[in-house]
Amino acid sequence: MSSRTLEELQKQYNQKPQEKKRGAFGGRRHPPHEPRNTSKPKDMKKTIGRLLSYLAPYKFRLILVVVCILVSTVASLMGAYIMRPIINGLVGQKALSFFGFSFNSILHYLAAILVVVGIVYLVGVVSSYLQFRLMLSVTLKSIEKIRNELFQKLEKLPVRFFDGDSNGEIMSRFTNDVDNIDVMLHNTVISLFSGSILLLGTFGMMLVTNIWLTLVTVFFVPVFLKLGGFIAKKSGKYYIGQQAALGTMNGYIEETVSGQKVVKVFNHEETCLEEFSLLNQDLRQKQFKAQFYGGIMGPVLGNTSQISYALTAGLGGVLCLHGLCDIGALAVFVNYSRQFTRPIDMISQQMSTIFAALAGAERVFAIMDSEPETEEGQVFSEGLRMRGDVVLKDVTFGYDPEKVVLKGISLYAHPGQKIAFVGSTGAGKTTVTNVLNRFYEIDKGTITIDDIPIQE
Amino acid sequence: MIVEVIGEVVMPKLLSYIIDFGVDGKEDKVPAVIQWIYRACGNDAFVACIAAGMILTAIIMMIGGIGGAYFGGKASVNFAADLRADVYHKIQKFSFSNIDKFSTGSLITRLTNDITQLQNFVNMMLRMFFRAPGMMIAALIMAILMNPTLSLVLAVAVPILIISILILVITGFPKFTRMQTKIDELNATVQENVSNIRVVKSFVREDYETQKFGVANKNLKEASGSAMKQMVLLQPLMTFFMNITTIAVFWFGGNMLLDGSMTTGELAAFVTYITQILSSLMMVSFLFVIFSRALASGKRVAEILDETPDVQDNGKDKTFTIQKGDIVFENVSFRYYKNSEESVLDSISLHIEPGQTIGIIGSTGCGKTTLVSLIDRLYDVDEGEVLIDGVNVKDYSLENLHAGIGMVLQKNLLFSGTIEDNLRWGDENASREEIEKACQSAQAAKFIESFEKGYQTDLGQGGTNISGGQKQRLCIARALLKKPKILILDDSTSAVDTATERLIRKAFQDNLKDSTKIIIAQRIDSVKDADKIVVMNEGKITGVGTSEELLKSNKEYQEIYYSQMDKKEGDEHVL
Description:
The structure holds two protein chains of two kinds. Chain A is 68% helix and 6% strand. Chain A is α+β, with helices and mostly antiparallel strands. Chain B is an alpha/beta fold. In chain B, helix 5 (104-129) runs parallel beside helix 6, helix 7 (148-195) runs parallel beside helix 10 and helix 9 packs antiparallel against helix 10 (264-306). Chain B starts with a helix and ends with a helix. In chain B, 42% of the residues are buried.
């Protein structure tokens, strides 16, 4: 066989989700190589709500976390602001007063401020430690609960479910998907929240410090969003391409390496190498673009913020010269204007984590929501010894509704009898034992053991 | 990258000029150029000039950063692509025992996950490894140049910070390893349950398994809790040190400022440098964590690259090809693990003449598959020789050897693509008639034609959409297309019913008269009509002969024969 072209390979190894037979999964199936991070969650609101319900039992702790975040953010804002009275005091522009106290000696003044700063810092550090610690315990408990529920559900699902999804697929729910949720709960919740508070707080402090300089920063916000959005769109596009190429590549590797022995026996190594390098080239190009756009995000945004920093500094300098601003304020303000872009950056970085986690959560919940085996018969379940009188009456069954495997089967097996099934491949021998064990529900007819239908 | 770093440290310096000159009007202790600009322009214009200088620096930095991303991206992508290609090439050269040693599953993870991990690391490293230390050193130099005395604060702070990071990382490391083992345990439980769900359900073990999982899950929670607690400490601790250092700088710096040995602008710039130094220190420590992870992946990949394929293709004469299919085993012994005592094959000698049909029978694990694998040189013998047409198999080139032998493996696989694509593995230039003929011989033509798209039917990954028996017949057809001089069927009709199997054997006799045919089977029926039957037990040949001869002389053959005859008669009735 001559090697296939790139298009053929891509088509074969990166197939779209196939319509599944008749699954416990509502016909939805994620092929193993689907790029995980790009699959956007379908019903975000519902998924978020459900995720939050896992956090609900820890309300008290979560409130504490919020308080801690508030305290630490305020502390960090205050810590930055403190430079202003220090510098002003040192330069001697203002009277040496701090919180209504006036000082005679500049050294006393400095010492007093620094002590206050130290306390503020300490409070900030302690509360930020507490917020991480509390969130950690909440996350660990919620994740443990999600894992347990998922596993319990798995044990209750009918065998049919396991036919539809490959084992690796189910495994990846436990590993990748739950991990993604884990990461999100750990970092994102805190970052998002403290990011937004920091953003608001910084903005407020900027206004307090100097309105004119704030305008410069405000002017740069849309520039930021535009630039960031443009790069994010580009890199997002190439990222999807990269994930698809990676999926194709991994699918190809998985198949050919699993079949390596066959490849050898048929002297197929050369073809495999050719096809492999075709895919590898493709991946190389797409990956480069994705990496490049991902990589310039930081420098472009970072330096745009440097420009805004420079403009602020320049304008601030001029304002100072004309007495519209004090030096301490300028020093503080330039720091704020740098800080201002950080939360925006932080939040935009978290977006991909959030999407990955929500998509993962949706897949996890999909398992939790699939129909379990129905268990109605409680009456006979205990204390009753089976004699082993098996009757199949008019049993009709097919794994696939269109393809009937057992057609109106009737048979008896009396206790102690030995019954053998003989027939050519695909005749339905194993299927009879499968429905007898209720691994699958029959479509028509009844199966009774000791005159009791197996459903009971 | 370097441009960025320099820019990053120049910025605060420029700012200090604005504060000092523009506003304070101090003129001493600055480079002549700046003084000159100041004198030439006057206050307002000077501030504007410096601001313009800062903007220019920012733009240069942006270009530097984009360049860094470009080359960094290029380097890491190429690194990964080349590495992936190297590993894949290496695997293509692996013998069966090399593959067995690693197991296919682990080969796949190494090729996919581990390489991705390494690529991420290289990418990060290029972006941060030079940047963080570079920035640290540059900021350190600037700080010392600006004010050596004040830099002494750093001499205290930096070592303390480094030591505390090290303590955290070192004590945290075993905790992370423990967490990883717990994750593996949890995954093992899930894996076991998912793949054996029928057994779990048949024995009503759901509750027990759920409980077992609960324990594993709780262990994981505790292990990751203790590991994460450690890491959670890291950030607040860093911030704490950073803050203390800042306070110290303000205190000492403030005193110096009052002495007049330092300017306000310098103090502001110095604080920025401190922040830069400490945060790049944090980045470096973070890098070490990633590095240790990448190291593990790197080791796993290197293992593949370092493995020597133990079947070397050093056939003396590339022109040797298999002409007749005469096979001789001379005193052959073989072990899968070179240091194990038990031989899988123990001094086997056997002569198979061209055109004969040979049946090999014996209990599971007696070495049947191993014996035929040696013919195709899937493994190399430890002692003795295997000769085809009087030439040692090691003297054929592997390509010619494999080309002359059609082997249907016990665990056979089909690949993504159409049925025809798969069949063409046997012979890529086969005509339509040849393909159809091979399928007829393998009794596959009928079911293929019953498919809507016939030979163009797409086989899902690995042929998941056809039955086991159909798969086996396609595999036989694929081997037949090679028109091999030697055809080996290793238990390849186990899922095919007896009637169809008989038709396949008949087709062999009619269409493959000149080829040597070796059939391994469990069913007496499959080998009964062979020219010669080889009976094996525990790595030894216990008897060779026709069915009648063996029935008289060989005890094992008698046992197998009579144990299956009852069943066989039953079969015959149904058919």
